[in-house]
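Recall the central idea of this unit: under ordinary conditions, the amino acid sequence of a chain determines the structure it adopts. In this exercise we apply that idea directly, starting from the sequence alone.
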Amino acid sequence: MKHDLKKRIEIHGNIESENKLGEKTFKYGLKKKLWAAIIPQTGALQRQQAETILTNVTHKIIVRYSAGKEVTKEMKIYYKQHIFEIKYILNPYESNEYLEIFVQEVLT
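Accordingly, the structure predicted from this sequence is:
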């Protein structure tokens, strides 16, 4: 399946560095930029009765597997003025072609 990856997103997370004493420290910031498709999820998915992992998902973000395989749930995705928390990451059919990242938009 071919996806239209036209949106430039930023992946933010903890970046490891070393302080003056040679100790490892972490700073939150930009890790990488990726091309992606951002698909709003339907209201039906958001109004599920059961407490499932997808209950609060507002968008699905699709990226190439090779570019996004280091993305973890602890990271956040930025697109223009939007910030997204990662809820779940799926590798459809374990094909290593695309990743589907289910996210919830953070309202600031």
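The first helix runs from residue 43 to 46.
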